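Dear colleague,

Following up on Tuesday's group meeting, I ran the structure prediction for the two-component complex that the binding team flagged. I've pasted the input sequences exactly as they went in, so you can double-check that nothing got truncated or mislabelled along the way. The structure tokens for the whole assembly follow below. Feel free to forward this to whoever is handling the docking comparison.

Inputs:
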Amino acid sequence: QKEVEQDPGPLSVPEGAIVSLNCTYSNSAFQYFMWYRQYSRKGPELLMYTYSSGNKEDGRFTAQVDKSSKYISLFIRDSQPSDSATYLCAMSHSSNTGKLIFGQGTTLQVKP
Amino acid sequence: DSGVTQTPKHLITATGQRVTLRCSPRSGDLSVYWYQQSLDQGLQFLIQYYNGEERAKGNILERFSAQQFPDLHSELNLSSLELGDSALYFCASSAQGSMNTEAFFGQGTRLTVV
């Protein structure tokens, strides 16, 4: 069993929809949680970063962490075709580490 | 553009060969990280260097090695290549030693072993 599980999708939604992306994990030592966006043929770029449990909002993006359930989510409001990409969750147990554990990524397509 | 430069962008080579992938970090960044992305394994951490010294090691095969030079660029050497080594290899860099909040990825080198 992988440490981080993420449904690969693909997920297809109409423009303007609210998108919910999720990851579950097994290692209770994880404290730092990130969401990356990766466009085709590009490197991942950091979207959201959350420490421990709670919510964090940045524009149309909201990240949620529920450590008791070992479950993290990324919500995208008013989705746009430009949001079409692969979304990867990542996590680590330390604030000073280069080792992130990534999910497999969920491919999202937002149709105009 | 993240400011992290990886060369070459594409590489096709035969089994048993050796290749070198190069990464130039963003100006001023001291840490370089190498990740491998394959369809079955996803993104996997290989190794981290900080200011020339190895800082952390992940699932890096013994056939693979890396180094960071005094000018802070890094090279990942892959030898005795196997078909299963075909993947995207990403380099990331950050100013300090953490990937958590400040690391930027390059565009990757796509390695195809035939």
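Chain A touches chain B at residues 32, 34, 41-46, 49, 88, 90, 92, 94-105 (CB under 8 Å).

Cheers,
M.
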